[in-house]
Amino acid sequence: MEREWLFSLIPLTIGVLFLSFGVYGLRRARALRRTGVTAEGWIVRHDVRRDDEGARYHHPVAAWTTRDGRACEYASRFGRGSVRGGFGVGSRVTVRYDPEDPRRFAIQGWDATTVDLLFTVLGSTFTAGTLGVLLVRLLTL
Fold first, then answer.
1. pLDDT, tens digit, for every residue of 108-118?
2. Which terminus of the chain faces fewer neighbouring Cβ atoms within 10 Å, N or C?
């Protein structure tokens, strides 16, 4: 095994990064489900961001009041190409937030764990596949 194994570091690194990102998101969502508090809020605006190719992503900005009376207004970490149904400006939404840090929140019906789950599955596949190939190459030397 010469230097070819170095090329295996590319998918291994991608896999580990994807896996880390996905697991972080899933753990965050689980913590919000377990210890988060719900509040009624509304969408006050959409932060529109563009990616490098010019695609537009709408991040709804939810406003709500915590149980201890603090006013909160934060943009969702998830953006979508269009605004569907009940997420237009002025729409009432249910927000689940961390009472210790209200910046950690999720808008029910908008923020989904699908992206986090996808990153976890892809990261696991890349990592396990690359480690499997490296192990086979090491055993057949």
1. 888 778 889 99
2. C
